[in-house]
Write a structure and sequence with these properties.
Elements (H helix, E strand, L loop, with lengths): L2 H5 L7 H24 L25 H4 L2 H33 L4 H7 L5 H19 L2 H23 L9 H5 L4 H34 L13
Helix pairs in contact: 4-5, 4-6, 4-9, 6-7, 7-9
């Protein structure tokens, strides 16, 4: 009796048959995803992000462990860390602008530093959630929005790292022109943080591009499955 029959594997099984079966299963997965996206289910997960605070209510459901494929989870956790790091740096930037104002610095610089608070929801909408959605849904439209969003995020970091005096950013120009020693040291730290965040976001953008480029489209999959 042939060895294949003993283990229950057909003798005429070929690589082409296996690939055909995998393509069929991939097509079914895509059809199920499309149906789930088109049918609104009242039993779906409730929004949990951002956390409820005062008048702010959760808008989207966000769960990296449940929604993101395992190979991409480490990347998404790192990107999430970069988003929360951005929040901390923006708040730190405002505190340095305030301290500079207290020691005789520009009032306009301090006032404009609050404008960059828009970067907190802006970063989530522009780059973080687009990348998150593209990883979860494998949607081409979200993927391209993720590319553009990450590029805008890097440009924002560059602008803040440069730190033109009088425009609210506590970066290198502002730090090197500061006369107060304490503010100078803290501004140098701020400029360094903006520079490090910029470099990290750039590296993550390159990794995201490579991840998307190396992921071959599944046979029979629709071009876009964005909700």
């Amino acid at each position: 009796m042939p060895a294949d029959s003993v283990v229950g594997i057909p003798a005429d099984l070929s690589l082409a048959m296996v690939e055909e079966k995998e393509a069929e299963l991939a097509k079914r997965r895509q059809e199920i995803r499309r149906m789930q996206g088109n049918v609104a289910s009242p039993l779906g997960p409730e929004p949990n992000f951002p956390p409820q605070f005062l008048c702010i209510k959760p808008l989207v459901y966000h769960n990296i462990k449940e929604q993101v494929p395992v190979p991409s989870q480490r990347f998404m956790y790192t990107l999430a860390f970069m988003y929360f790091a951005l929040i901390a740096i923006i708040i730190y930037n405002i505190s340095i602008a305030l301290l500079s104002f207290v020691f005789g610095g520009s009032g306009m610089h301090f006032g404009l530093s609050f404008v960059y608070l828009v970067g907190i929801p802006g970063a989530f909408v522009v780059w973080y959630y687009n990348v998150y959605s593209s990883v979860v849904n494998e949607a081409n439209s979200r993927r391209w929005l993720g590319y553009v969003g990450l590029a805008l995020g890097v440009i924002f970091d560059i602008w803040m790292a440069v730190g033109v005096s009088g425009l609210g950013g506590c970066g290198w120009i502002m730090a090197l022109g500061e006369k107060n020693f304490l503010v100078f040291i803290l501004a140098i730290i701020s400029a360094s943080l903006w520079t490090a965040h910029c470099l990290m976001l750039l590296l993550l953008g390159i990794k995201y591009f490579r991840m998307a480029s190396s992921a071959k489209p599944e046979a029979g999959a629709p071009a876009d499955t964005a909700p």
